Amino acid sequence: MFFRILSKRMLILLKWVHPVIVGFVLAGCSSVVVIPPLEGLPPDAPEQRIKITAQKYRFEPETIKVPIDTHVFIDIESLDVIHGFNIERYGIEKEIPAKGRGTVTVEFYTRERGTYKFKCSHLCGIKHPWMNGKLVVE
Fold first, then answer.
1. How does pLDDT run across 75-99, given as a tens digit for each residue?
2. What is the domain partition of the chain in residue ranges?
3. What is the model's pTM?
4. Dihedral of the CA atoms 126, 130, 131, 136 (nearest 10)?
5. In this structure, which CATH number among 3.20.20.70, 2.60.40.420, 3.30.200.20, 2.40.50.100 belongs to the domain 47-137?
6. Nearest-angstrom CA–CA distance, 96 and 39
7. Exposed, middle or buried, 19 (CB in 10 Å: 0-12/13-18/19+)?
8. Are the beta carbons of 57 and 125 closer than 8 angstroms?
9. How many CB atoms lie within 10 A of CB 74?
10. How many CB atoms lie within 10 A of CB 108?
């Protein structure tokens, strides 16, 4: 009886903890070439401003599409707790203050086509590892 209860509790624990541990381990194993965010920015580059909201456990919009060779500004506001914003490819790492405490702006120059992941980089709860989105440079 004791082992049956113990094994049920272990299964419940592993169901929630296992994906989080695997996510943290895999995050540490990746290697990405970082491009400085404003490297190669010409003075006459077109500009695009995008607004994003962060809320447990999602960004809105989840996918951002921008043209290549554009100076991009992203204004990010939290609708609840403190979040983070990370685009590893551009070396961007910013803390987003909690609701009502302001907006954060990040900027970078899109000089390569591709799809890049952005994610929350401040632990905001149990589903934090899945709070991410896509930046599509066309």
1. 999 999 999 999 998 899 999 999 9
2. 47-137
3. 0.72
4. 180
5. 2.60.40.420
6. 24
7. middle
8. yes
9. 22
10. 23
